[in-house]
Amino acid sequence: MVTYPSAKFMECLQYASFKHREQRRKDPKETPYVNHVINVSTILSVEACITDEPVLMAALLHDVVEDTDATFEDVEKLFGADVCGLVREVTDDKSLEKQERKRLQIANAAKSSCRAKLIKLADKLDNLRDLQVNTPTGWTEERREQYFIWAKKVVDNLRGTNANLELKLDEIFHQRGLL
Ligand SMILES: Nc1nc2c(ncn2[C@@H]2O[C@H](COP(=O)(O)OP(=O)(O)O)[C@@H](OP(=O)(O)OP(=O)(O)O)[C@H]2O)c(=O)[nH]1
Ligand SMILES: [Mn+2]
């Protein structure tokens, strides 16, 4: 018998909330970081109607290796090779310089699998929704504007993946005068 949500999905949620427990977002209210990864998984489930469970799980884990002490080995052992492969695809190499990481996000977007592209689209949608209402602490207007411009370059390389998510992103780019 299949029951929803699955035990594996719940374990994923618990693991992500534990690993990100001390991190906060950069918004003035210092939202717990885990809210972002929950948003990304929820966008995929509710707004994009994705039922591919490893994708929804990888969405919960998409920043766990990049931003906590978790390793790909941990993720593979706990959640399997499929979920781990997706997390790998969406993880930036933090040892690289920021400019190079930003350049690689644009270049790698085009080469990603369809399932990884879904996660990246939802990730950017959540970050941009947040940026529409908040300026992260310490950011100038110019930096916020540059993020929208860069995010559009990433999204342009993710197109043809999910019409609904792309429409919602395009509404934001339109509002910012980028489309
Ligand atoms: N909009 C927004 N972003 C926040 C907030 N707190 C943290 N972030 C993260 O900040 C990143 C953008 O900041 P940058 O200065 O451009 O990049 P950096 O953190 O990698 O140095 C986003 O990462 P990214 O690489 O675009 O994506 P990802 O790391 O989420 O996968 C986003 O996840 C917040 O309150 N609002
Ligand atoms: Mn993210």
From TrEMBL:
GO molecular function: guanosine-3',5'-bis(diphosphate) 3'-diphosphatase activity; metal ion binding
Domain HD stretches: 33-128
Any Pfam family the entry gives: HD_4
Transmembrane segments: none
SUPFAM superfamilies: HD-domain/PDEase-like
InterPro entries: HD/PDEase_dom (IPR003607), HD_domain (IPR006674), MESH1 (IPR052194)
Chain coiled-coil ranges: none
Cited PROSITE patterns: HD (PS51831)
E.C. designation(s): 3.1.7.2
Reaction equation(s) it catalyzes: guanosine 3',5'-bis(diphosphate) + H2O = GDP + diphosphate + H(+)
Role, per record: ppGpp hydrolyzing enzyme involved in starvation response.
Recorded family membership: Belongs to the MESH1 family.
The protein, known as: Guanosine-3',5'-bis(diphosphate) 3'-pyrophosphohydrolase MESH1
Gene that encodes the chain: Mesh1
